[in-house]
# Entry
Amino acid sequence: NIEVCQIKRPKGWPEMSDFEVKYSTVPTPGDGEILLKILYLSVDPYMRGRMNDTKSYVPPFELGKPMQGGIVAKVEKSNSDKFTEGDYVVGMGNWAEYMVTDGGGFIKVDPSLAPLSYYLGILGMPGQTAWVGLTAVAGLKKGQNVYVSAASGAVGQVVGQIAKNMGCHVSGSAGDDAKVAYLKELGFDAAFNYKTADNLNKALAEANPKGIDVYFENVGGPMLEAVLNNMNMFGRIAVCGMIADYNAKSASEVSTAPRNMTQMIGKAIRMEGFIVSYYPDACKEWLGVCAEWLKDGKISYKESMVEGIENAPQGFLDMLSGKNFGKQVIKVADD
Ligand code: NDP
# Structure
């Protein structure tokens, strides 16, 4: 059994030496327990926060113990009356090939509905985040103007497609021309490369000729200041993430707060942060909506697949620096 552990707390950008690959024997399930063969695991930006020893809405990873995250697994052996050998499940598990659990927090998933890895993406936490942010937090209405940053990523590509399906004008930005081309393929009305744009204010104005009613914030940094300049009256900003600052070594490296916050007053803008798991009803609702849309071909999903559990740290680091194109998933084993 291979497990990947965190062994050091990073300062700034994490490095490969912060992780260690450990070898052990495949564990045996006890009474009421199941043995999971892990097929896919998810690497997500929030995990960077868990690598620090700081108080947050999720506890830090324990040094020397396997990293944890969303996994899709097959029940290899079951001593539980809740699961049968051959079931496919999704839940929070270890960065490992195999693990034993009492099954708490794991739910069975349907492999015929979509590729199993989608349960870590569009049919999982990132897809739910897009739905929660747009509907429950921002209260998006048909025909409004939506802008999303990190638009080709795990969450962003779903945000754009939901808003299109709701009859909105949708624009997005990404840090690579191929990603921008993909956004246009998805039906975004406008898209631009924020890394090569001369002026973010101008790029946003061109991409949003009627201004922005809803901003789905994924990045923070200078983007937020430029967005405020382009927001409409009574606009809403759903603050989902600020990845531009996750690897800041100290407060002095964190992006300067927008210098134009006074616009929130005159434009009566509502800006609200959220954590997806605080909205269980909307999360459940999304699974129904998404299953229908997948069946009807009204939504699609791009993934970036890295093979092998031992490559999970590199896949994670690549995602943080934007080398992923779509949802970053680690394929651990064939079914
Ligand atoms: P992505 O798949 O979008 O991957 C991260 C992307 O962020 C990279 O591909 C890169 O894309 C972009 N990025 C990295 N650094 C910067 C930077 N300095 N400025 C702008 N963009 C940058 O990740 P997710 O879709 O999983 O997550 C998107 C955001 O949503 C994150 O901020 C995450 O923390 C947040 N999130 C919040 C949740 C919540 O409950 N609040 C739940 C899930 C996610 P590019 O090439 O375009 O730069």
Notes: The chain is about 25% helix and 25% strand. The chain has a mean pLDDT of 97. The longest strand covers residues 68-78. The pocket of NDP is lined by residues 44-46, 126, 129, 150, 152-156, 174-176, 179, 218-219, 221, 240-241, 243-244, 274-276, 319, 322, 324, 327 (CB under 6 Å).
